[in-house]
Input
Amino acid sequence: MTVTATVTSVCVPGGARSKGGPYMISSVLFMRMKGIAGRPTGVKDRPEGRFAILDTGRPTSTRGPMNNTEEIMSNALPGNSLIAHSKALEAAGISIALVIRVPAPLKSIADQAIRSASSVPANLTEGHGRFGRDRMHHWRIAYGSAKEVDTHLRLLAQAGAIDKAQTTAALELFDEVRAMTWRLLNPKG
Output
C-alpha cells in the first residue's frame, strides 16, 4: 500500500520511501492503514492498547476544531490603541492608492513609496508591542519611514505622476503621524 500525506506526526518505517526517508503521515491516517480506526475506543473516544496515545483527529478542547480561524483570529488580534497607528494606516492607504498606477519610468520610486508607507503603521504597531529600547527602535524606524514616504510623494507629485491635491492630504496625515511619533520618542519631562 502506498500512502502520501502532508500532515506530519507519525513516521512509518519501511514501505513507501521518498529520497531514502520514510513518509511522515498523520496519526489518523496511520490508524486507518493499520485497521484500528474502527476498533472499540477507550476514554474520550481514543483507541485502547498500543495506540492509546495517538491523536484520533477529534478535538479535545471545548472551543472546537483547532483550525477555526474565525475564533482564533478574533481572540488574537486586539485593537491597537495608538492614534498614530490609525492615522498612519489612513495615510498609507491614500499613498498606496495614489502611486499604484505610476508610469513605468517612475515605478521604482512608487514601489519604494509603497514600502515606506506600509512600514510606518507596521513599525508603530510592532513598537507598541515591545518594551524599552526595542520599542524606541521601532518607533524611530516608523518616524524615518514617514519622512521617506514624504520625500517620495513630493517627488512623484513634482513629476506630475500623481494628483497634487490627494498628495497634499497624504502629506498632512504623515506630518501628523511624524508629530505623534516624535512625542512617543521624546515624552515631555
Residues 132-158 form the longest helix (27 residues). Confidence is low (pLDDT under 50) at residues 1-31, 51-56, 69-77. The chain has six helices and four strands. Residues 1-59 form one domain.
